[in-house]
């Protein structure tokens, strides 16, 4: 590939989704190069091409006609002062959309980087991240910022937003293997986030207790991850899923994949991201063939899967 493409990473939340919206910690790891984008100047207006999704259109200028991704593209053009430029923008997604894998943030990051390269804007990662966060607000309402941060920096991180924000890279020497099971049911993150918000308003003490429990298992999870204590990490993931279940953000398909993963030897399995639909992750035991076995179990039930390795080698940026 001679062509200059720019990338945004996808992400998997290992532990801490939903609680992270309320200032607790979360651990997330990248899905490398989930989205690639390329911009070429010229033509008339903005020609948007997403071959995998069958999109080949001129970008709508009027807001009410726009899909979420078009709205966020419009914000990017406006913020970067590129509204009058004509170009051909091609986007190549390597992760399915709306599956809780951070695809929307990765589209924003890849596009911003492609525009930066084409128009020589000199944006640093911090600026890319900020702008992608603006886009995430359009897609989600009240995002924690974990998706755009992972998408920009592409490293396993301990993350916290709010008054005392934290972004700490977690160094993982020994590779850890995950299988992602993709339900195929669109996850409406904004919907599950707002259901949790309402439930918390109705039962503040119960929900604060759940968030605190999630927070402490995230902190334990960092030690387990760094120390390669996979059985402990798996147990923490299982408990975390139980708490997510208590918040009622799971679904039939997610539960099925989690049971299959555990039956096929996963050390732990839980939903990842917003839930409602979307994806699960399963932690594989270190023996050879374990990931393939879990993967084929999930696939036999009719779901898509991908394998993701955490740590062990430097991540491609
Ligand atoms: O569904 P995703 O991949 O956008 O993940 C959402 C994670 C939440 O914690 C539920 C929301 C957030 O903004 O952090």
Automatic annotation (TrEMBL):
Cleavable signal peptide: none
Domain GHMP kinase C-terminal positions: 224-303
Recorded superkingdom: Bacteria
GHMP kinase N-terminal domain mapped to chain residues: 76-154
Family recorded in the similarity comment: Belongs to the HMG-CoA reductase family.
UniProt protein name: 3-hydroxy-3-methylglutaryl coenzyme A reductase
Organism: Marinobacter psychrophilus
